[in-house]
Every structure is written in structure tokens, then in C-alpha cells.
Amino acid sequence: MIVSESFVQSSKARDVEFTTCNGDRPLVAQFAASNARDFADAALIIAPFVDAVDLNCGCPQRWAMADGYGAQLMSEPELVTDMVRQAKSRSGLPVSVKMRIHKNLKDTVEFVRRAEHAGAAWISVHGRTSKQRAEPANMDAIKLVKESVGVPVVANGDVKNEADIRRVHEHTGVNGVMSARGILDNPAMYGGYDHTPISCVQDWVEIALRTGMTFTLFHHHLIFMLDRVLTRPEQRVFNTLSSVPAVLDYLEEHYGVCLYPAI
Q: Which residue in 128, 157, 153 sits closest to 143, CA to CA?
């Protein structure tokens, strides 16, 4: 989630928040925005490098909602309509909307229908309200959204393995299933793995070194990927590593991951 205001105003923010390469397609960039102009400006700037943009209407973090971002937009359907229309018109890109559900599902149905009418290419729905965290995702609510619009609907929430993918799809009839924390923990999930295989770690090392990934991102993703592999004492050691060579030495020593893969 890239904050559109800073992305538009600062070249430094753009350099920090968004990097890509020729092979990174199809690619959707998600923005947090509180007004139509910032969202449309950001979409226009990023248009040459992506295939679509997404408007985040679901982030429940307090700072985001306090600034008018994320789930705060769920109470402002007219603003969201304007944001979708302007971004689509000015950038020429498909625009999607990522949201949560309302306590009153009638409001959710009204929201998604307005987004569809404004030109949203698809809608991704996390089956929790902005105040819910550990409660089970409401699959019936996602099913209702799917039945209420004609554009593709993507389900999100409690998707941690291949069995969850099948369960959610069968229950809701959605066009796609999205995973957030689940795919961070196990990027090989869609390959049928319940836990991250070491071969996936090796693949990530090769990708990161080949593309010049920043250390922060390189290390951060490995922390997620190794969460179920490392013991707690091992996690404390790994999480404090502060350089690429240190991480590579650790992976080679403990798991046989090639220190310097061919690039």
C-alpha cells in the first residue's frame, strides 16, 4: 500500500516505495488515498510500469483511518466513486477496489454496486469489518458481494494453504482468492506446499540478488518465510542480521542454501 500523496509529491518517496523490473508482470500497484486528485495523479505517474491500480479501502490501521485512508473510505462511497472514475479516466488503467465489509451488509452491497457503476474492474473483499482482527472471515458476506455485482470478485481472509483456497472458492463462488499473511509466510502455497520449502528460499535469494533487492525487503521476506522453519532462539539470531553477506552465510551454514547463486 503506497500513500498516493507522498508518491505524487516526492521523487524520493517514489524511489523508496516502488521498484520493478521487466519480468515483473502482470503487476498491480495499490495506493492509499484520501482524495480523487492524489489517487489519479499517482495512477498517471505509475501507469507506464503497471497493468492496473488498486484503491485501498480496507486498511484498518489507526494511522491510516485517521488520515482518511483505507477502511475510512468505506463510509464515503461517493468519494470512492469519484476516485475510481478519475483514476481510470486519467491513467487509462483498470482500477480495482480492495475493501472490508460493513457491520450492516446492506451498506456493503451498496458500496460495491457504486464501485462497479463507477468503473471498478474488479473488487477484492476481506471478510472482516475494520474493527475485527482474529474473528473468522465472513464467507457468507463475500458470497453476497459476489452475487451483487457483475465484475469479478476476489475473496480475502483466512487463506493460508491450498485447502483454504478450495474451501473459500467453493463457499463463495468468487473469481479469485487472495492471500496476504499466508503468502508472506509461504510463497510456495499456490504450488501445493503447506510450509515454505528450502528450495523456495533458494529461489528468493536468487531473485533478490539478480534484481538488486534492498536489504530491508530481502531480509523482511525471509523472516516471514522462515517463521515456521526456525526455532524461537534461531529467529532471534536471524532477525538481528544486518547485511546481505550475514544472511547468506547463515542460510548456507544452516540450510545449505547456495552462498552466491549464479546470476
A: 153
Tens of pLDDT along the chain (263 residues)? 999 999 999 999 999 899 888 888 999 999 999 999 999 999 999 999 999 999 999 999 999 999 999 999 999 999 999 999 999 999 999 999 999 999 999 999 999 999 999 999 999 999 999 999 989 999 999 999 999 999 999 999 999 888 999 999 999 999 999 998 899 999 998 888 888 999 999 999 999 998 888 899 999 999 999 998 899 999 999 999 999 999 999 999 999 887 554 55
Q: Is 59 a catalytic residue?
A: yes
Contact criterion met (CB below 8 Å) for 261 and 209: yes
pTM, two decimals, is 0.90
* b/e map 206-236, b = 16+ CB within 10 Å: eebbeeebeeeebbebbeebbeebbeeeeee
Side-by-side strand order, sheet with 153-156:
2-3, 28-32, 52-57, 95-99, 123-126, 153-156, 176-178
- What 3-state class would DSSP assign to 95? strand
Catalytic residue, candidates 21, 59, 200, 258: 59
